[in-house]
Amino acid sequence: MKLLPNRRLVRFADVGTISYSPYCICIRDDIVVIYSWSVTGNNQYNYTSKNHIIWMNTDGIVTKRSLFSESVWKRPCSIHNLESGLCVLYRVNTEYKLHSIELLEAKSDKCNKLYAFKGIYGLNPQRNFECGGMCVDNTGNILVSDYRHHSVYVLDKELKYKNRLFDSKNGLDKQTVISLLNDHIWVADGNQIFIFQYANI
Question: Where are the NHL repeats (predicted)?
Answer without folding.
Answer: 133-158
